[in-house]
Specification:
By secondary structure, this protein is of the alpha/beta class. The chain has helices spanning 3-12, 29-44, 77-85, 103-111, 141-151, 160-173, 184-195, 200-208, 213-224, 241-246, 257-262, 294-301, 319-329, 334-340; strands at 18-22, 48-53, 71-72, 89-93, 115-120, 131-134, 227-229, 234-239, 269-276, 281-288, 305-306, 310-315. It binds manganese (II) ion (MN). Manganese (II) ion binds next to loops.
Length: 341
């Protein structure tokens, strides 16, 4: 965090503040971990904090310290609106634009009188905050929360609660320290978090060893549906609504499936298409290796975006049309895909 931003934040936090911390819609490990970590930190400085998530988050995060204090806007609209309207400061974490919150909560945030601070690592941050700490090279927002504490000269406030939350966010957002966003600094931060009480084995177990039998069967279906296009260095997976229904699909069950497609030798671009009949869309997740930007691909074709190697998007056509269109677009990228392989 640069000096200007640090000074603005220091001024904002100079007196006790009512702080609301907001994560993005469909919160992931980094959103929940960074928000809770920051919340414990700001509490230790004497501020009153509340964490608000637009909607519910996966069960594999429900063991995190402080999780019981999270207010899910979808479930507690009035309370969450009231808290935002009576807050002095709103921290927005792990997203770059208020439309990533979506729905009514977005409107509440747009109309509130609180000052905003953004901490985020997604590309092209919007300009709504009085202090924007944005760094697209960071592994995770959770890593940034550690640097945020450091910039304020407050790393001695690092508690076990903060450490466990931030470690979980870093671990999940880096695919267990595998993605290219993982830097020596990421590991140094992780080491400090472990020293402060984050137990890596326990965090791993709590996050990853929680599969339901239905989810494992659904993974079997997904792998069976895997299509590999070797000449385009691409692999994709499809899941129909029926396949989801047959396996008692719960939100988050398909998390990480796309990485199996990316693990095929020679593949640099992996996609999963998931039919969502209720919303009449196909939800799409993109993953890539090297310099093939799925952020650009998702922005250009699927009204989405994200990071260079991980992005999301959607299609309002049916599943078959979506796949056919994808296959017709793909050859245009043959050279870029080849370069990344
Ligand atoms: Mn993140």
């Amino acid at each position: 965090m640069n000096e200007d931003t640090t000074q603005i934040v220091e001024k904002l936090l100079a007196s006790a503040q009512k702080v609301v911390i907001v994560g993005h819609k469909n919160p992931d490990g980094d959103a929940v971990g960074s928000c809770l970590g920051l919340s414990f930190f700001l509490k230790s400085l004497g501020h009153t904090t509340t964490v608000i998530m637009p909607n519910d988050f996966p069960d594999f995060l429900k063991w995190l310290p402080g999780v019981e204090e999270i207010i899910v806007h979808e479930r507690e609209r009035e309370k969450s609106t009231e808290l935002i309207n009576s807050s002095d400061l709103v921290f927005t974490l792990d997203f770059n634009s208020l439309d990533r919150v979506g729905g009514e909560l977005q409107t509440v945030l747009e109309n509130c009188s609180a000052k905003f601070v953004m901490i985020d690592h997604h590309q092209q941050p919007a300009d709504y905050a009085v202090a924007t700490y944005s760094d697209v090279k960071m592994s995770s927002t959770s890593e940034m929360v550690f640097h945020f504490m450091d910039a304020l000269g407050q790393t001695e406030k690092l508690s076990k609660e903060i450490a466990v939350n931030l470690y979980t966010g870093i671990m999940t957002d880096t695919g267990s320290f595998r993605f290219s966003s993982t830097t020596p600094t990421t590991h140094r931060v992780a080491a400090k978090l472990i020293e402060a009480g984050a137990e890596s084995a326990i965090v791993n177990q709590n996050v990853y060893d929680t599969n339901s039998p239905e989810r494992m069967k659904l993974l079997g279906v997904a792998l069976n549906n895997l299509v590999i296009l070797p000449e385009l260095y691409t692999a994709y997976i499809t899941l129909t609504q029926k396949e989801l229904d047959d396996h008692n699909f719960k939100k988050g069950d398909t998390e990480g499936f796309v990485n199996y497609a990316l693990s095929v030798k020679g593949v640099v671009f992996a996609v999963i298409f998931i039919e969502n009949k209720q919303e009449s869309i196909v939800k799409i997740s993109f993953r890539s290796k090297g310099n093939f930007s799925v952020n650009d691909f998702a922005r250009n074709h699927y009204s989405g975006g994200g990071h260079i190697n991980a992005a999301g998007g959607k299609s309002s056509q049916d599943l078959n049309k979506t796949i056919n269109e994808f296959i017709s677009i793909l050859p245009r990228y043959k050279n870029e895909l080849k370069d990344a392989s």
